[in-house]
Amino acid sequence: MPSRTAGRAAGRAAGRRTGLGWLWLPLGLCALFLYLPILVLVAMSFNGGGSAYRWDGFSFRWYAELARDSDLIEAVVTSLGIATGATAIATVLGTLLAVGLARHTRSKMLEAAAMAPAILPDLVLAIGLLAFFYMAGIPKSALTILLAHAAFGTAFVVAVVRARLAGSDAALEEASRDLGAGGFSTFVLVTLPSIAPAVVAGALLVFTLSLDEFVIAYFTAGPTTETLPITVYAMVRTGVTPEINALATVLVLISVTVVVVAARAVRRTEKS
Amino acid sequence: MPTRSHGGLGARLRRGVEPAVLLGPGLLFYAVLVGVPVGLVTGYMFARRGRFGGVEWELSLDNFSRVTDSVYLEVFRESLGLALVATVISLAIGYPTAYAIAKLPPRWRTVALVLVVVPFWTNFLIRVYAWIVLLNSQGVLNDVLVGLGVVDERFTLLYTPGAVVVGLVYSYLPLMILPLYAAIEKIDDELLEASTDLGAGRVRTFLGVQLPLTLPGVVTGSILVFVPSLGNFVVPELLGGGKTVMVGNLIRDQFLKAQDWPFGSVLAMMVVVLLVLLFLGQAWVTRRVEGGARA
User: Fold this and answer.
1) Is residue A246 within 8 Å of A42, Cβ to Cβ?
2) CATH number of B69-294
3) What ipTM was predicted for this assembly?
4) Residue B57 contacts A, CB cutoff 8 Å
5) Where are chain B's structural domains?
6) What is the pLDDT of residues B127-147, one digit of tens each?
7) In the list A182, A203, B231, B284, which could disulfide-bond A91, CB 3.0-4.6 Å?
8) What is the pTM of this model?
9) Which of B 16-35 lie inside 8 A of A, CB atoms?
10) Number of separate helices (H) and strands (E) present in chain A
11) What CA–CA distance (Å, rounded) separates A127 from B36?
């Protein structure tokens, strides 16, 4: 009976796949290593006492403190503004660049140049931008951070969208042109819908990267600009309070949500 | 793009305009915000320091000779050492983990990969801070060690080179696991079976077949951990307590404290040159392995 043999073969293959044996050990240890620090932070955020390290009874006290911390809230608003602006610029420029690279050139140099800001060490880009804004006489502010984030964000959008375009051929676009559509309508009606999931994924990527980005922001921020990472840096340096634990818990919750939502959104759009 | 010859002058003109419209804005944006800044840093290497930051445009090669100062050589030695240790530990944790993930059933593979990525998407400073909470003398790790009777007295693990290494490994481990996973997952199981069928033991199969085939992943992962470790100034500062100075700290200080931009530029470009050399090495390894597989 062929089906039974096939079934047995499949079963054997599955057995080989699931029979991890000793491999559970590194998997478990790695999970412990990655998540223990985060779990401790989350647990400590409900600490009633004043120490960030020593448990002193359960309380939501530090979440209340967090909600009252006007400096922190201001930093969150600044960060969200920067991330929104940088995402808008990076998504538009990155998508155009990726389509241009995929459909109009075979230059490896251009391809490498388009990815360069993502590969360049952040510290190098940071000092370069510091030097540039200084020489150009542009005062450092939230706007300079926004432009800096848009620059490296564009490279990430290019990477994601370019990967998607590599899997699709240009036949649909050529058909659209042959049927008389212009370049613009072909782009909006044919190209864009086919790369939409990648564009959304790229935009989400830039948004989260910008929210978390510290080094470039630290170098290109004005004296009074405080993004969320800059504020966290100051908090950690000047003295650790349990308030940071509460903030950390909120941030972890947000990033988990974003990762899960993004993964689902991409899978759903790819299915349809 | 094969250019097709139908269409009149208008169509041909449009075909020329289109690449310009698509590529132009992005490349212009890059030229201003990436090209000019990197060009400036390159130029700064040959200039003299300005009194209050900035530079005096006078040709000078002093910045290069300062690099060989014993104080700085010591910093390079320590940073390269710490970054290397962090890379080796990441590889030691990352390889078995990536291998195990590749052997999971497909459904669980995705879950495991998401679990690897999630910490990476949480705020970098928060992840570093978590280790202050863990390693502090009043921290959880001490509670456990004292509770189990492993040590008699509380001690701080914080502000040591070891803490810096732990922080670096924790920060960049996902960047090691992902390329390793991609390389391991690509291997045809039959190659490994062929090796064991021909009488090679598990160790020999691993060293002779599995490891060479996954070498590009090993190299990529190692670069992705090593280079950012060198340039990191936050981990040495927060977990090393300022006692451990790495190249990243040195560069940061030249720009924001000492106001010696030319010397800072030389240090930064050294990191870039190292990165380029490592990537060339990676390309070479990948070509050799893929060429070998095809032959």
Assistant:
1) no
2) 1.10.3720.10
3) 0.84
4) no
5) 69-294
6) 898 898 888 877 777 777 777
7) A203
8) 0.85
9) 17-19, 21-23, 25-27, 29-30, 33-34
10) 13, 0
11) 12
